[in-house]
Amino acid sequence: MDSTTPIQPLVIGANADAVRLSQALLQRGILVPAIRTPTVPAGTARLRITLSAAHSEDDIAQLVEALHAID
């Protein structure tokens, strides 16, 4: 989704899938909460990626690699 803020939403779809991905990332040491209904409309559950100046390029690369690795 387009975002001009440090919060980068990644729409997953189903609540269960978003929670599963969030938990898999946490097992890798990456905190990315799942946002689900009723906070967002049904079918648009998402991961809420929050970036800050404290994150390095390596941190972001680790996140991207983890997202690709998780089924």
**SS strand fraction:** 15-25%
CATH topology: Aspartate Aminotransferase, domain 1
From the 3D coordinates, which CATH architecture would you assign?
Alpha-Beta Complex
Mean pLDDT: 96
CATH superfamily: Aspartate Aminotransferase, domain 1
- The CATH class name reads Alpha Beta
Q: What is the straight-line distance between the termini?
A: 21 Å
What's the assembly state of these chains? single chain
Estimate the global geometry from the Cα principal axes. globular
Number of strands: 3
Order of helices and strands: EHEEH
Q: How many helix segments?
A: 2
Instruction: Decide which structural class fits the backbone.
Output: alpha+beta
Helical fraction equals 25-40%
Question: Major sheet: order of its strands?
Answer: 1-3-2
- Unreliable spans are none
Domains counted in the coordinates: how many?
1
Largest sheet composition: 3 strands, antiparallel
Can you give a write-up of this model?
The mean pLDDT is 96. The chain has a 3-stranded antiparallel β-sheet. The protein has 2 helices and 3 strands. By secondary structure, it is of the alpha+beta class. The chain has a single domain (7-69), classed as Aspartate Aminotransferase, domain 1. The relative contact order is 0.24. 37% of the residues lie in helices and 21% in strands. It has helices at 15-27, 57-69, and strands at 7-13, 34-35, 45-50.
